[in-house]
Amino acid sequence: MKKSLPFSQVLAIGLMLFSMFLGAGNVIFAPMVGQQAGTNTWIAMSGFLITGVGLVLLAIIALTRGGGTVEKLAERVHPLFASIFVLLLFLMLGPIYVIPRTNSVLYEIAINPLVDTKTNTSIYLLIFSFVFTFLTIILSWNTTKFVGRLGKIITPVFSILIIILIAKSLITPMGSIGEPQKEYMSGVFLKGVTEGYYTMDVLAAFVFGGIFIKSISSLGISCEKEVSTLFIKAGIITIIGLVALQISMAWIGASSVEAIGFKENGGEVLAQSAITLFGPFGICIIGTVIFLTGITTNIACLAAVSEYFERIVPSVSYKKWLIIFSILSFVITNFGLSTILTFTFPILLLLYPIAIALIVLIFTNNLFSGHRSVYIATVIGVGFVAILDALKEVNFLTEVVNHIFGFIPLFENGVGWMTTGLIGFIIGLLAAKARKEPAILINKPGREITKI
């Protein structure tokens, strides 16, 4: 067993983790925030960076404190809750949402503009998604190669291209930053907080924990303490990279309006900005960037969900799960991006607040003596309003929900779950004290001590 790794190796591992988080959400949402927020971009981005980036490191640390896997962390609430939450989490981060979304976004940006729209474009999507899915399977086949493939090859190439794009936008700005649009005239910070959900990076941090540990085992790192330390170091490198990336993407969006006008999505913003900055060659740059971010996300998500299902159903091997979920994601991709987003956003609005609540609880565990009642009541409080937000997302009884529950502080801003979560926390703590529940304290990463 290696006692320590040289900085170059730690950096490569950090870049590997960074590349796992690079995906469509990391490059298409911040530009839209920039376009819409205008002069309020940096206020909006401060909220965006909290949920889209800052909580990622906290999620990584929470995993190390909670036992190393999201299952162990969620079991602090209840085993049944853990089973349902983790199942939804892995399916969303894998074949149901992230992989199909990545495939669809890459197709819309890099392929669709080049095809004849008069023909049946679904055929092109079918062919493209098949080829891209096949490539993902090949690169995900052996997780011990992740450090070399992602950290040492793909990420540096992506970084060079994105630095070129950003440098050009700074040297020759496309225009000045305009006035904020209606949605960003008030409640700007909280609007940025909720926009950060859509990167899904906090949920991804929970999912990537298992595949990360499996990947670094080939480097001779197996001691729990060493794995936790390395995970956190890699997380810091990841956070630095994500902050730089998101701020840069927001700048491109904010400075692009004069040149390209307002666009419907961040993919269009980036594509048109690249063409404005570099001419026709710009589409090659942004196409390559989107392709690299897409392939790294798909590799990480497909490998992570396959590794998870191999653990819960060991009779089916990792490689068989890889093929099963690849086929499922391929099928869902061909329903189209709009259908995918409509179907999955409500689930995302449910999972993200609960994930944030678990992170907060694991960090404050020893303050409330780790009582299970606190975990249960807090998650119930958060989950209740999260369900209401999900219902509003699908326009189900929206007016009725707003009328009945509008009294909850921050409910109209989409973060009313913070209020009900705090109420649940207090109720749970009082119940635990009344029932004299045993304390379950966290001593070291992944280790607990129980006190009566």
UniProtKB/TrEMBL annotation:
Record keywords: Amino-acid transport, Cell membrane, Membrane, Transmembrane, Transmembrane helix, Transport
Tagged with keyword Secreted: no
UniProt KW Manganese keyword: no
Membrane topology: Multi-pass membrane protein
Pfam family, one: Branch_AA_trans
One GO CC annotation: plasma membrane
Source organism superkingdom: Bacteria
Compartment list: Cell membrane
Main localization of the protein described in the UniProt heading: membrane
GO term, biological process aspect, one: isoleucine transport
Residue ranges of the TM segments: 7-30, 42-65, 77-99, 123-141, 153-176, 196-213, 234-254, 274-300, 321-341, 347-368, 375-394, 414-432
One MF term in the entry's GO annotations: L-valine transmembrane transporter activity
Role noted for this protein: Component of the transport system for branched-chain amino acids.
NCBIfam families cross-referenced by the UniProt entry: livcs
Sequence similarity: Belongs to the branched chain amino acid transporter family.
Name of the protein this chain belongs to: Branched-chain amino acid transport system carrier protein
Organism: Bacillus inaquosorum KCTC 13429
